[in-house]
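S., here's the first fold you wanted:
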Amino acid sequence: MTNTVNFDPSKKSVAVICYAPISDEKLLTTLKQLFSLRPAHWRMSLQLLLDRPSDSLLKLIESLGLAITVVPVKSSRKLAKSKRFALQNISRDVEAIIWLDGRVNLNSAAYNQLNNFSTSYPSAILIGQFLDKSKSLVLAGGYQKSHLPIFGKRAVMADKLPVDVTAFDSALVFIPNVVFNKIGNLGTRASPASANRNFVRRAKRANFRTLVLPGSFGDFQ
């Protein structure tokens, strides 16, 4: 299912790929939030990956009148295939792709933070970090290799400035076209952790940085 809307060609074209294994009620709230929070100069389209969506849910999504293409996910084993299909749906003129976990709650400043840092670091892969407010711990974001092999990796807390990382979670990943046009997009294999580490390595070899951004972009549902 694809909603067709009129786009303003003068605005920055940003595509979002979002897998949302959440309830229908929460999904509709999340979709409205995603589009209402976007910067005014962005024209955003969404590839929405859903587990076996019902006809009634598809009709509700269509009624929102937003630029949403629903990509059904037949099973967890087919998720990687659905992600590849979503990538194929994205227009070639898109200026950036955001990979987003549908289970996160974005705060009101998230997209503006992302936009500001993408202006300052136009050729970097940008990673949003999400916090457990009660514990002040990073639940998702970037990682660096640990000096202790038993741990494998340790979370990075970006406080005031972006921090280079060697791996990341896929809660929010911003990839500008200058990056994916040269090294391809995120891996869509069944093991995202391994694919994300490999993506950072490919980016580094091509002289692109992978930065976890300071502050919290929100929290998990």
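And the second, which I think is the more interesting of the pair:
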Amino acid sequence: MKKTKKRPRHPFLTVVLVVLVGLYAYLYPDLILQKFAIICPFLEIQEIPVVQELGQYEILKKFDFTDDNSIKDWQNKAFKGLTRYWIDRKIRDISLHSKSNKTASALYYMITYNSKEYPLLSWKWHPVKFPNKKNSINLKDKDDYAIRVYVVFSKGFFTNFRCIEYAWDEFLPKGTKQASPFSDKIMQIILETGTPKEEWVVEERNIYEDYKTLFGQEPEFKVKAVAIMTDSEGTKDSSEGYVKEMKIYRTISSKNKPKKKVKYNWTFRKKQKSDGG
């Protein structure tokens, strides 16, 4: 007689058990590997933070603007012609160089996050040439800047949006807050005025608090994009500026202390020499 293979008495329970073990391993891989490391002396464990930390800050996203890769995921949105944006290596401090000649386009980066969780945005900037607004009468024509930074809040389509615009103007007083001549959904803050006295000026803004100040309420939408713009189409002139070291981050507290994840390197540990030689 041929011997028949024994089948598991409870195949359904076996499948369920395998699925549950697999699900647990998927949801809690760190716990499984940590327990396995206890019985495997050759497993070396190195803990690394989920996000990058800088002093007392936790960085969500950082743009150094020091090589072409730092802007490869940025897109140039044309409104009237294309402003040129490129990484300039010819200057001492490599940075993002923007130059407009009767053009208006914005370099933007799509990123979704909650401004209450990551409220801080910082960057360094330096205007080179302001557009000449003296011959412009229309407010829309005067809405040209050597350099400005946008934070776009949106839900669904970009028709349902709010936007904070941080600008550097030649004459408008520092601290001026006003609606954009193109839309009351865009609120402007003049952070700096006139020719820069330093090579680089550092800005740090709490976009969550700025939103509440400018729109009179908490943000309704998440941040969907940040943008940089140099334009001169309204004045029919030219403008130019530099930006570098842009960061989206928050301060570290006990409530938002960054979580840790475990990185496992499967390497043999070196044997320690005994005291006896």
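Why I say that: The longest strand covers residues 238-251. Residues 102 and 233 are 4 Å apart (CA to CA).

Talk tomorrow,
H.
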